[in-house]
Amino acid sequence: MQAVGIVVEYNPFHNGHLYQLTQAKKETEADIVIVVMSGTFLQRGEPALISKWSRTEMALANGADLVIELPYPFSTQKAEYFANGAVQLLTELGVEFVHFGSEAGNILPFYELVDAIQKDLSTINSYVQEHMKQGLSYPRAFSDALTRLNSRQPSL
């Protein structure tokens, strides 16, 4: 039995989420869809608009076969920890595929961004620290660091 995993918040569940659930199963030919979902608190620590129970019901009613709650220590963190916690859960469950959505529908820019970040990680970290000392949040500081690096290197 093959499973596809999706990392979600569903705050609230909408037609784009329904499309993703349907496409994930179709594209991977998986037998089941396992969803890892934030609980009461979402990424960056904000409270969910809709209870985790209602969001779980929506997911199950629209194609998810199993919903696992992403533990609080991961669900309220920056993207790297959020994703690592969720993917670790999916890996432990034996999920063969992880499916994610994007507005672009093209994974190549993600690979290019990862390569660029890895190539210039020390510079990016330096910029992030500089921006955070100015009082910016980590997500804003990271975004500004990438923008700053991009202005120096058109290839990013």
Automatic annotation (TrEMBL):
GO terms for biological process: tRNA processing. Keywords: Ligase, RNA-binding, tRNA processing. GO terms for molecular function: ligase activity; RNA binding. Coiled coil: none annotated. InterPro entries: Cyt_trans-like, Rossmann-like_a/b/a_fold, tRNA(Met)_cyd_acetate_ligase. NCBIfam families: cyt_tran_rel. This is UPF0348 protein family.
